[in-house]
Amino acid sequence: MSQYQHSFKEDIIAIASGAFLVAQGVFFLQQAGLLTGGTTGLALLVSQFTDLSFGTLYFLCNCPFYLMAWFRMSPRFALRSLLAGGAVSVMADHIAYFFEITWLAPAYCAVIGGLLMGVGMLMIFRHNASLGGFNVLVLYCQDKFGISAGKLQMGIDCTILALSFFLIDLNLLMWSVVGAIVLNLVLAMNHKPGRYQAHPANPGA
């Protein structure tokens, strides 16, 4: 892998694009009152009971994991993750200013939200970054112990959703689980060590 790397421009574009897709996925979940796992799910849940926005809560929940990434992985990875997570926080809080949705079925929101978030996270992962939160933990475990990032993330997400059983409607919880499964299937099937290599960087890019 050392002789293959993305250019700086490719990294910035991919991280920004991935963050936008994740924020768009979060927006769909919000429209139906759905949750998901990880710090995203915690921020969505708490935002229903406080005046703080999702973006603010999401960033605050992720701060300890950015520190973990700095000391356990690398400062470069931590800074890229901070950039990606910060972009998601800002974008998610401002998407509603650009368009409005009057109604969407929870089933559709679960599937499209899970797919968008999964693809967005996949783009970010492949450019040596994460969204903070449990992303940092699962990527660390995958790199050090060979544990599938998607499978471990799915286990964490399902645990968090199970703890939400008494806090949201059972029907919404069911579709939230579906969305989390869709998201993590995208990661489990597409993000595996050694499978992906970038083309050699173009010095002039």
From TrEMBL:
InterPro entries: UPF0750_membrane (IPR051461), YitT (IPR003740)
Main subcellular location: membrane
Annotated organism of origin: Salinivibrio siamensis
Topology in the lipid bilayer: Multi-pass membrane protein
Cellular localisation: Cell membrane
Protein name per its UniProtKB record: YitT family protein
Keywords, comma-separated and alphabetical: Cell membrane, Membrane, Transmembrane, Transmembrane helix
Coiled coil ranges: none
Pfam families in UniProt: YitT_membrane
